[in-house]
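Q: My labmate handed me this sequence with no annotations at all. I'd like to see what the chain might look like in three dimensions before we decide whether it's worth expressing. Could you predict it?
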Amino acid sequence: MRHSSFRRIEKVYETNDLLYHKFGIYEVAKQSIQGESSFLTKVGIAGLTGAAGGFVGTLADMVNVRMQNDIKLPLEKRRNYKNAIDGIWRVYKEEGLLRLWSGTSTATSRAIFMTIGQLSTKYFEDNILTHFVSSLTAGAIATTLTQPSDVFGSVST
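A: Here is what I predict for the chain of 157 residues:
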């Protein structure tokens, strides 16, 4: 049961990440600029759309980290959320509305760097080899940029 709860919360966060800012806002903003966009313009757009997605994804990220770290706590301090919805509801009920948005700066900065690393670095021709190389490179850049935020977020939640 715990495993399926982790998978559900990851899917919520991934879906938000994928649909909301990577393909939704980013593409609309990029298309609204006339002519070819410069690298700095793409970085700016990616950063803004990453911030929007990170802010929206804060709830899921906070509960996900708590559920993963629960096993490390002594039995009497474990939260034992049944699932993601239960986790969000209990945080709201037990700790208040503002606590739901704790970690916003960390989640948002992570999303900004991740989106910049994934979206603004695609400057290759359109074929299989370059898709593979660009995906690998974008993933490596995104991981490098977000690692400090991930560690800080895990420790502070």
